[in-house]
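Aim 2, interim progress: modelling of the 2-acetamido-2-deoxy-beta-D-glucopyranose-bound target.
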Amino acid sequence: MEHHLLCTSSSLLLLFLFSSIPVTSQFTFGSSKQAHNYANVSCIENERQALLLFKHGLIDESNRLSSWIGEGCCSWEGISCHKTTGSVLKLDLRNTLPPYFDDDDYLKNQLGGHLSPSLVNLTNLQYLDLSLNNFSGIQVPAFLGLLKNLRYLNLSSAGFGGEIPHHLGNLSHLGYLDLGDSSSSPTSNWLRTKDLGWVAGLFSLKGLVLFSVNLTAARDGLQSINMLPSLTTLDLNSCGLFNHPHLSHVNFTSLASLDLRENNFSNYTAPPWLCNLTGLHDLHLGYNNLYDPTHGLFDQMTSLVHLDLSLNRFDTSTLKSLCNASNLTYLDLSGNNFQGSIPSEIGQLSKLTNLVLAFNKLNGTIPTNLWQLTKLQALDVGYNSLTGVLSEDHFAKLRELKSLRLTGNSLALNVSSSWVPPFQLHEIRMGFIIVGPRFPAWLRTQKEVEELDMRNASISDAIPSWFRVLCRNITSVDLSSNSLTGNPLEFKQHRPSRYRSRRIFLSSNKFDGSLKSLPLDISDLDLSHNFLTGHIPQLEVGQTVVPGMRSLLLNDNRFTGTIPKNLCKWEYLYILDLSNNLLSGRVPLCLGNLRDLKLLKLANNSLSGQIPSSLGNLWQLSSLHLNGNKLVGKLPASMQHLGNLEALDLGDNGLKDIIPTWIGERLSNLWFLRFQSNNFHGPISDTLCQLSRLRVLNLAHNNLSGFIPHCFNNISAMVSGLHGDGVIYGPERLEDIKGGREVEYYALNLLLVNSVSLSANNLVGEIPDEIMELVQLQVLNLSQNHLTGKIPDKIGNLKQIETLDLSMNALFGAIPESLSDMYSLNSLNLSHNKLSGPIPSGNQLQTLTDPSIYEGNSGLCGKPLPNSCWEHKLPTKNGPIDDDDEGHSESDWSWFYAGIGPGFAVGLLGVLGILLFKKSWRYAYFKFIESACDKIWVKTTRLRRKFR
Ligand SMILES: *[C@@H]1O[C@H](CO)[C@@H](O)[C@H](O)[C@H]1NC(C)=O
Ligand SMILES: *[C@@H]1O[C@H](CO)[C@@H](O)[C@H](O)[C@H]1NC(C)=O
Ligand SMILES: *[C@@H]1O[C@H](CO)[C@@H](O)[C@H](O)[C@H]1NC(C)=O
Ligand SMILES: *[C@@H]1O[C@H](CO)[C@@H](O)[C@H](O)[C@H]1NC(C)=O
Ligand SMILES: *[C@@H]1O[C@H](CO)[C@@H](O)[C@H](O)[C@H]1NC(C)=O
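Predicted structure of the complex, ligand included:
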């Protein structure tokens, strides 16, 4: 479906959705009472034959149907017969294992193959369940419409695809039809229907589940479904419904449960007929961007028990109109447009067990009435602008509370160190609120915690020893960005269990000392940005296969020694960041065995030797940062297999090579390429221009020679901006030096960085006109080469340019007037060339008044230089007049700043590299609401300077 979400990770979310589909088929089925496994009832031969033929068409890898032999077909697995006639009434071939979609046993237990039409000979069949199998995208067979006695038909999650046959509309006795979730069929071939007209024939229908069936093209929308007066359950979740479901008169007033989540409605007005469904218990409208102009949509819906309005645009009046629905137990209003304070009427909803108000614009203090909701099990007010200090009194009545989410508010928690809360929480989310400065002692009483988030919670304390013990049972701990001291957790090494992953994030604290061991029962460990010393621990001897770890971040510490080889035993690692430490020795060859690696950062250590060619095995790698080491030699040719690479930083090493042609030819996904400060020599290969996604190219400070290629205008990302397939990186950051300032780029900004730096090489010839087509460029640095000719007149096309450095070349002629069209320019350097004539003025140029910008061009005149043009002779045909006038004496001084200063700063672009994936992958594990938050969350903290 084309889910249109407020947040970015639709596919992620989808994954989450599909892995948590409730098992919907617990529908009561009246006539099944007469169906039993009567082994003694003799089975009808014709039906037995039909079943055998049916079995013959199936692929049954795990041999689930091994009992389908012999005469007594009534005792076969999944079959129930009529107790007197022996006629088959029920065929239940639902996958018997729980739906873990990544579990091999589950997958193997799926039936496949094709469905034999012999099934129509089961003329009395009332119940057919083929759910949770995998029929690989085949169509729902039309002959099912001949099974006139069917009461129950469940084909959900069975991999059926394509157009639903309208023949199903002949099943006039059908009480329940589930065609939901065809996600196991190929995505392009999910179930769909062009016309829902056939549904009107199902006039006994009580339950209809079309979850994820593509109804985008269904012309009549809900009209046919509106013909079904007995309908009590309707699930149209993720159906791609586009047309507003307009109904002039609502027929299905007996509806008790309605799910319209995640559709594509073009009209954001909430359907007004909803308010006639006064008997609704469950209503799901999430992810639709709907609002209610009448402000009274829910006034009459007093029987509501479960209401999900998440990610819409309902406002505070809706919240008030809901307060009549006194039966509500579950209320999710996250991601709406609620402003002002939480209405105190919320206290009328005394049956509430789940209240979600996250991601709104609520402010003020939390009303006292809310704390009287004694049945609350889950309270989520995260990511609002709530204020106030919460004390023990607030929580005194919340004995049932299991989940408390306060993250992202201006709240503070002030409780005594002896507080014993009345609850036992499973989930604690208190990130970005004030919990400290002391480590919260009350945590010690919480024995059932599974998730703990106290990121950036102003805790400045040592981790108490009791917490180290408690922590062993917590699935996810995030205490990053506090000022925790001491030695971090002592990890107990024991084997990870199969379905359990543990995550521990302790980055950006003040932990010191050394690590005694690395944990084996943890899937994600982040200890980055601390003061840890000593060696990175070896895995314990005798540990054989320890596949648990998925991401390991030890970057920005003071680890010494070599990279332990047995890190390579973590064969499922996909993120490994050891950058910014004091590691030495070689890059271990065995890293090439980590076939799942997506991000490998070893930058800014003292690693030596060559880049091992085994790294070429890491074909999934998307980000490789080996910059800032002492690596020598050539690039291994095997690196051309890294076709998924998007960011490659090999800068600040001693590499000595030409720029291989395969970089342009094979690494076609690159958008970040940095080779600065090595010994690359030879010409800049034209093939680099094939990197159509490239947005950062930095080859500065090498020995490159020859001309600048004339094909840079083929790098379409720099010409036309974003690529259509826009990769979304989430909140990863690219640290960069821009105009001397340190800047953090977050998600959206990141897509805007475009820079080319070729400075400090031996490039000759003219500046190609083609560069002037790179209109997205923000930084262009060609300084310190031997470039000649004029500055192209079209330079003014580069309207986005903020930093332009052409200094220390041999450029001559006049400065083009168009330079004054560069409205974003804030750092310019044209010094030490042979430019002549008047300096253009106007617009942005007027703000660049530092004379050193133009220093060392003796033919230039006019502001900001001291020599005005009228006292100058016009330059002659032979070039600039070479006169040693007064102003020259100060040039030696300003040269340093003008020539080297900005050039150096720009040249360092991206020294610090990119933290791709880290966060997005980390959040992949979180429940969607939490991940959505981190994508929306705009972090404003500045990084401390990290130059050494
Ligand atoms: C749903 O169907 C419409 C047209 O019928 C199509 O354009 C769209 O891509 C389909 N969506 C999915 C997710 O298959
Ligand atoms: C149904 O049974 C009849 C009688 O045995 C047989 O002739 C016919 O082929 C069967 N139909 C199908 C579709 O298998
Ligand atoms: C309501 O249902 C009846 C029969 O079930 C049908 O005749 C009528 O057209 C329906 N009304 C609407 C507005 O669809
Ligand atoms: C909703 O109910 C009101 C009053 O019972 C009725 O007048 C109106 O036509 C109904 N609207 C729809 C769309 O069924
Ligand atoms: C959107 O739906 C509302 C309610 O059905 C209707 O009044 C309005 O005219 C619709 N707007 C558009 C642009 O179709």
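The chain is about 10% helix and 20% strand. The two ends are 50 Å apart (CA to CA).
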